[in-house]
Amino acid sequence: MATILDLFSKKQSPDEFEALLKPHVGHLYRVAYRLTRQPDAAEDLVQDLMLHFYPKLQELKKIENLKPWLARSLYNRFIDNLRKNKRNPISDALEDSVLETVTDTNLQPEHEVEQDLMQIRLSQALDQLNDDQRHVIMLHDMEGYTLTELADVMGTPVGTLKSRLHRARNSVKETLSLELSDTLMRVKG
Amino acid sequence: MNCKIVLTQLDDLLDDELQPLEKQQVQAHLGECDSCHQAWQQELQFRQMMKDQPVPAPDAGFEDRIFDKLPRTGASVRKTAFVAGFGGAIAAGVMLMIAAAIFFQPVSQQQTLPNITLTLHQTKKVKMVFDVPEMVADATVSMQVPDHINIAGREGLHQLEWKTALKKGKNLLSLPIVAKMAESGELVAKIKYGNQEKVFRLKLDIHSIEQGLLNSVTVEAV
Lengths: 189, 222
Fold this sequence. Notes:
Shape of chain B: flat
Largest sheet of chain A: none
Structural class of chain B: alpha+beta
CATH architecture of the largest domain in chain A: Orthogonal Bundle
CATH topology of the largest domain in chain A: Arc Repressor Mutant, subunit A
Number of helices of chain B: 6
Helix content of chain B: 25-40%
Number of helices of chain A: 10
Oligomer: heterodimer
CATH superfamily of the largest domain in chain B: Immunoglobulins
Mean pLDDT of chain B: 70
Number of domains of chain A: 2
Number of strands of chain B: 10
Radius of gyration of chain A: 21 Å
CATH class of the largest domain in chain A: Mainly Alpha
Strand content of chain A: under 5%
Order of helices and strands of chain B: HHHHHHEEEEEEEEEE
CATH superfamily of the largest domain in chain A: Winged helix-like DNA-binding domain superfamily/Winged helix DNA-binding domain
Shape of chain A: globular
Helix content of chain A: over 70%
Radius of gyration of chain B: 25 Å
Number of strands of chain A: 1
Largest sheet of chain B: 6 strands, mixed
Low-confidence stretches of chain A: 1-10, 89-113, 178-189
């Protein structure tokens, strides 16, 4: 009888799961975007996480502070997928590439033009970092996680994260160094 | 507290990692030392720039999609595009368009394309759209313009290269360029992925306001 009751108690509805997780998906999307750096992959990563946890509602209910716990799970899932991807390189993606053109007669306000370039340059600078450095600088400096929170999310000691962050910032600054102040003035001007 | 120590503690000050006394000492020094104060301002600018990096909003209906895809029964869980895209082979191609601000005109691979015409000394924003049937997680994109054409606001910079993930569908990149001489030129765009590389050559015609020069050009995929 106890087993049957247990089965009933574990029965769940999507509504129950949704009520518990919905407050967190916006934040998870931001973290996922910082990790994947593109919107569709971020959404897919969040979706993947939700599907993974859906059968585990009862376990989720027992977790006191879901936000950091979910962020850690998302990060672990991202790293797992990244490793799988590295083991399965894709080689034919560009085989049938074509180029098309249409001219653009619109001019953009100068500050918007500068902002596009600034993002490209920052993207280039972030490309110079290794994965660990890039993840810590994006989650700390862009998303506002503290080092203590990141130690929990990434499963890495604070001291290690601190030195990674320091090296990451120096590398980004070095890449951007020549015109950082000038560009910021233009972007904000 | 001297400048050397203060400069090593700016990060900790911003991260709120200093003890109260250290914090007070560093702040006091910054109030007195112009060069450290300038370094502090640059650090603040850098942090602000990082914070300002936008996160694009997910497509409309994001939350609904997330929860609508949950299995209604105990049936097996569907693999998502992210997992499939990361782990599986992508057999489809990549298409690069230099596109107008709003609309796109698909054409076949071999056709003669509309030229890009620049007016001397006037900035034109060229928008490139990579239309990808499946996600490409780790592509390298590069753009090269000739010496007499500048990337607006970046005089002297003629080549950009960066790694990026190409999402499924249209990936937009804008490049503002300005011609300094009335000479034709060529914009070279490259996409690299794994051991594959695709090169696109796009001729640029430049005319002064008086000339009105226009010639058709062919874009050659190498």
